[in-house]
Amino acid sequence: MKIACIIPAYNEEKNIVTAIQEVQPFVDEVVVVDDGSSDQSASLAQAAGATVLRHIINRGQGAALRTGTQYALETGADIIIHFDADNQFHAEEIPSLLEPLRHQEADAVLGSRFLEKRSQLPWDKRYIIMPLARLVNRLFFGVRLSDPQSGFRALSRKTASQIQITNDGMAHCSEILYQLFKYRQRIKEVPITVTYHHYGQKFSGGLKIISDLIIQKIIK
Amino acid sequence: MLQQILALIVIIFFVGRLFQQKKKKQINRQELSLWLIFWILAAAAIIFIHRIDQLVARLGFSGTAINILVYLVIIALIYQVFRLRLTLARLERDLSQINQHLTLRNK
Fold first, then answer.
1. In terms of Cα–Cα distance, which of A116, A70, A68, A69 is closest to A90?
2. Residue A32: pLDDT above 70?
3. For residue B52, is it within any domain?
4. Distance in angstroms (rounded) separating the CA atoms of residues A179 and B23
5. Residues B67, B95 share a domain
6. Whether residue B30 is found in the same domain as residue B1
7. pLDDT given at position A99
8. Angstrom distance (rounded) from CA A206 to CA A148
9. Above 80 in pLDDT, residue A58?
10. Domain match, B100 and B67 both
11. Is the pLDDT confidence value at A190 over 80?
12. A122 vs A78: which has the higher pLDDT
């Protein structure tokens, strides 16, 4: 069973090597999608032993994940993991995401920051932004999950080929969840730990996600 | 009256520019027609401003014709901005597809 881990990276030269080294023991191939970085992310990732795909221009995390997932499918991956380059996720939690897929108990396993209170989320994210995002997902997409915006997930080959990421930016998270529900995939959430090195998505980012989702729906 | 004449002069200036642009092939026939219709409607609104005033009053609006025209123009502008946003989103999507194609082909 071939396991590929996709790591989108944009100007992540400070973190990318650590991220790759931490992930490598748990997967067969680490695929770094360098999303038009102007720093040394790509060369460092290559030297660290990752397969590097280079976007000639910056297109966003969703676009990078789409490229990486497509590559993984073309090269015969059976399980595809989406992971972040900024060392917020803990690679040692990858086996707990893989377990339900290996035992064919789920088609998609999603990391959740809310199942156990391991992650130290900023209070406004925990009590305002995330509950609002959860509400938007529930009302507009019928998605009922504890974590509305987790980027740490593992997909079976069949599920990854079914899902079409059309949002280039951060809206891909909601889009993936929506499609998982739409195609009636078996979803399992597992607790993950997220260590915040920076604030990340702000409230304005949340509004942009909603507007991107609406625009994509119209132009489809 | 003076304001109406001034407004019409401005419109004539822009219509003249429009034909110049067409002559230099900076715009196509379709764009020329679209803008020509826009300026003709604007000129008609200025010439018949008092009639529109009466019509607006008869329809029960408290504002004058010029207010209603401004509101309509704002709505039209918002719609155009929205259309532009959709066009940009389509272009961005195409750009990403080309980018992905090139990335995977060069691997």
1. A116
2. yes
3. no
4. 51
5. yes
6. yes
7. 95
8. 11
9. yes
10. yes
11. yes
12. A78
- In this structure, chain A runs to a length of 220
Q: Is residue B69 part of a domain?
A: yes
Q: Are residues B72 and B104 in the same domain?
A: yes
Subunit contact A63:B100, Cβ cutoff 8 A? yes
B76 and B37 in a common domain = no
- Asked if B102 is an interface residue toward chain A (Cβ–Cβ < 8 A), one would say yes
Residue B96 lies in a domain: yes
> pTM for this one?
0.79
Specify the amino acid at residue A114.
F
- Determine contact: B25 vs chain A, CB below 8 A: no
Structural domain boundaries enclosing B103: 62-107
**How far is A69 from B35, CA to CA, in rounded Å?**
46
Q: How far apart are the CA of B79 and the nearest CA of chain A, in angstroms?
A: 14
A118 pLDDT band, cuts 50/70/90, is low
Task: Check: CB of residue A31 under 8 Å from CB of residue A50.
Answer: yes
**Is residue B56 in some structural domain?**
no
Nearest residue of A to residue B90 by CA position? A219
B68 and B105 part of one domain: yes
Residues B41, B81 within the same domain: no
CA angle A182, A187, A191 (to 5 degrees): 135
Q: Is the domain of B37 the same as that of B68?
A: no
Residue B38 identity: F
Domain count for chain B, please give it: 2
B62 touching chain A per CB within 8 A: no
- Residues on chain B touching A54 (C-beta within 8 angstroms): 103, 106
> Pick from B85, B89, B99: which is nearest to A55 by CB?
B99
Which range, of A2-11, A76-85, A127-136, B59-68, averages the lowest pLDDT?
A: B59-68
